[in-house]
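Contributing new records

If you add data, match the layout below exactly. Sequence lines come first and carry their own label; structure lines follow with theirs. Keep one chain per record. Anything else will be rejected by the validation script.
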Amino acid sequence: MSRSLKKGPYIDAKLLSKIEGKKPLETGVVKTWARSSMISPEMVGFTFGVHNGKKHIEVLVEEDMIGHRLGEFAPSKVFVRHGGKMQKELEQKKRESDIAAAKAAKSSGDSKKK
């Protein structure tokens, strides 16, 4: 759901004050916890360290990012994998078949050299 037009976009005032009057190349990483702040045209070229709950992820703002939120470019959830016991068994079989294929390729390569 979008923010109403009469209110305008939410841009963190503290974040704007950090980049106000500075040049993007001279400024280092600007750390912020304001994930919900929208990216405005004044922010283009700056590198922001957006907090994901654990650490700051560096985000270089480009022109096509304008209108999006900073949090969109710093994922806060990490996908590990699906599955349990069955998935582990399938992965083990795949590893074994890869090892067997590598050994077969190595032995056929050795016989060609002789």
